[in-house]
Amino acid sequence: MSETKDRPYHHGDLRRALICTALDMLAADQNWTFTLREVARRTGVSHAAPYKHFQDREMLLRELARIGFVRLGEAMTGAMSSDAPSTRAQFTAAAQACIGFACHNPGLYRLMFSSDADKTIDPPLHDAAMATFGILLRLLENGQRDGSFRPVAISAQAAASWAQVHGLAMLAISHQLLEEKVGPAPIPAALDVLLDGMCRNA
């Protein structure tokens, strides 16, 4: 695990300091094998201090995952806020933003979809994940409403879209999208294939 400089926290802001330290550790090492004791040491507080805010390491990990989904949603929404000429273009922008987020935050992205980010026992995490998934649902609904996408079950289009984009993200962060296997621009090409299947006039 890489060494980072212990940093003090401002009084009354211990929770935020612990989260920032844990996010830095996750980004540096791209895994979440650290302990609360290590997070405390690198934050510059006592070993017992984290327990004032996090019952255990798993609670901290779920909070990191929640932050990840919030940031992912912001990245997707920000990409769509540009002057996209069509729903298809907005979909492509959001999908590329999702994959880009994963590539820039591989450890965090893996955590968000890991068993350590159990959404069934953490309502705030569940809500953040569903809010981000809702961006995709609204895109598909808008596309069907304006006639861009085929009028089939939204759930089927959502499953196909999620599987494709998430799969591309995981392949990208694992450095598996090799040119000799999938060509020089696999992500745009794969998204075009997906959208050609969903659009009315592909």
Automatic annotation (TrEMBL):
Q: Which Pfam families match?
A: TetR_C_33, TetR_N
Q: Which domain of life is it from?
A: Bacteria
Drop me one GO molecular function for this one.
transcription cis-regulatory region binding
Descriptive protein name: TetR family transcriptional regulator
Q: Which organism is it from?
A: Komagataeibacter xylinus (Gluconacetobacter xylinus)
